[in-house]
Design a protein that fits this description.
Herpes Virus-1, Rossmann fold, five-stranded mixed sheet
């Protein structure tokens, strides 16, 4: 059994996320909408900072990677070529007692039996049959199951289908990378990139996930940050190893604790994949996939060449060699990164006997608010005016929040819970000598800093 992160529980994370405006269940006033969530005022800031950190590391820090923002909707043939219409499915079984649907591979995993991604419906059924009498329904605890059936995860839409017959079915994209493959030629023809190079994209993806029990870890509408790196076949392995190393280091640089990260190798690869490893994070429910790094061979460009009739092979301008590029993919969920960052930052501390605080120790660059500015008292106009001056001075440089609600102690607690690294208090001494109190989130130490020095100090 893997060691779990003991002080952080999902109940605490879900509750803090709601209470402090990070994540709200979707459509809550209508009773909620399963596996769909909204980012609140602090969540949207954290998500934006995560996107920016990824974009910086992937696009701006590499002169051979360019960005793309392809549409959510694509020609339906894209999903035939990619294999999603035929094979993008998970095995599902229904509890005969309470009708709760569960993913069969996850149920088997719970009792230590590994299901293989490549298994056919009858193979997984045979394995499930062998073990299902030992598996309890996660909702009602009964052990009576239906047969396992493969359930396709693609979300259908009627976009552009004016006949109403359902014949021209379109899909919300199940992954963002297909938008990259179908634009491979456009990017080559319109920019100065040459193989080896990468295309990076951040965007929404949709999957009819069977189970919806792990908060934002498994959403039906989620966001992916994917980079597809196109290489000569002979160099695929070298680049694969390079990207594996870079992507693991990225999380360390982001500020994630190394002991909460590990590699997991896929045991049985889909036929076209040459290598597949996941970076796993130790969520409160155990080590689970955060990012996949895959060597996809020439499968994607070959398939799209075949299905579209457009030759997507590449001619090397130096050697004149023509070949179908291989793809090294790095694919991570924004929401899973968000949850990892939140869990990693979550800390409970006893500050004096019987008095504890909850503090989110976010890395400074990810914190939704970087500096909070307080007037000591809100009913003293001279303090409020001075505090506003300091706030206005800092806000072009840092993400700032002005807070004059309740006493200063309460304001500190609130800022701790949203992970603000520094709080500045304007008091009566400020009016005399132009210095302020700066309180550090992690050490809780306070020091006096001259207003003129504040920007440098922070
Ligand atoms: P899982 O095995 O957990 O279902 P997957 O292997 O199907 O994930 P990929 O298709 O490789 O996931 O997608 C790449 C990344 O997108 C994942 O590593 C994950 O971070 C993210 N992701 C996938 N599905 C979801 C989801 N339903 N909700 C949130 N993030 C997701």
């Amino acid at each position: 059994m893997e060691q779990q992160n003991t002080s952080v529980t999902m109940e605490k994370i879900v509750s803090l996320a709601k209470r402090r405006g990070f994540v709200f269940p979707s459509s809550e006033i209508y009773g909620g909408f399963a596996a769909v969530y909204d980012f609140g005022p602090y969540g949207v800031e954290l998500a934006k900072n995560i996107r920016e950190a990824w974009w910086q590391a992937m696009v701006h820090d590499h002169d051979n990677i360019v960005g793309l923002d392809s549409a959510i909707f694509m020609h339906p043939r894209v999903w035939e070529a990619s294999g999603h219409i035929g094979g993008f499915s998970d095995p599902l079984a229904e509890c005969k007692k309470c009708q709760t649907r569960s993913r069969v591979d996850h149920l088997l995993e719970e009792i230590g039996v590994q299901a293989d991604e490549k298994m056919t419906e009858s193979e997984i059924n045979a394995l499930f049959d062998e073990h299902k009498s030992k598996i309890a329904c996660p909702k009602c605890g009964q052990k009576e199951w239906s047969e396992a059936k493969n359930f396709n995860l693609l979300v259908e839409s009627n976009l552009g289908d004016f006949t109403g017959t359902g014949e021209n079915k379109t899909y919300l994209r199940g992954e963002t990378c297909q938008g990259i493959y179908i634009n491979f030629k456009n990017v080559l023809d319109s920019t100065r990139v040459k193989v080896p190079f990468g295309i990076a994209q951040i965007g929404k993806a949709f999957r009819n996930e069977i189970t919806a029990r792990q908060f934002i870890f498994r959403k039906r509408e989620f966001e992916q940050m994917e980079m597809q790196f196109f290489v000569h076949p002979s160099e695929a392995e070298r680049f694969y190893n390079e990207w594996k190393e870079k992507r693991f280091q990225y999380y360390i640089d982001l500020g994630i604790k190394p002991e909460n990260l590990k590699w997991h190798e896929h045991e049985n690869l889909v036929f076209y994949a040459k290598a597949a490893w996941d970076i796993e994070y130790r969520y409160p429910f155990g080590f689970k996939e955060l990012e996949g790094v895959h060597n996809r061979s020439d499968y994607d460009l070959t398939q799209h060449s075949k299905f579209s009739g457009t030759d997507l092979s590449y001619r090397d301008p130096m050697t004149n060699e023509k070949f179908m590029p291989w793809i090294v993919e790095t694919s991570v969920g924004l929401d899973r990164t968000f949850l990892a960052v939140l869990c990693d930052a979550y800390t409970e501390e006893e500050i004096s006997e019987g008095d504890t605080r909850v503090v989110l120790k976010f890395p400074k660059k990810l914190a939704p608010v970087q500096v909070a500015v307080f007037p000591l008292m809100k009913n003293k106009p001279e303090l409020v005016t001075k505090a506003r001056e300091v706030f206005d001075m800092l806000r072009p440089h840092l993400r700032c929040e002005f807070d004059d609600n309740g006493n200063v102690g309460k304001r500190y607690r609130r800022q701790d819970e949203i992970g603000t690294p520094a709080c500045i208090t304007i008091d009566f001494d400020t009016l005399e000598n132009d210095t302020v109190t700066v309180r550090d989130r992690d050490s809780m130490e306070q020091c006096r800093v001259a207003i003129a020095e504040l920007k440098n100090y922070l």
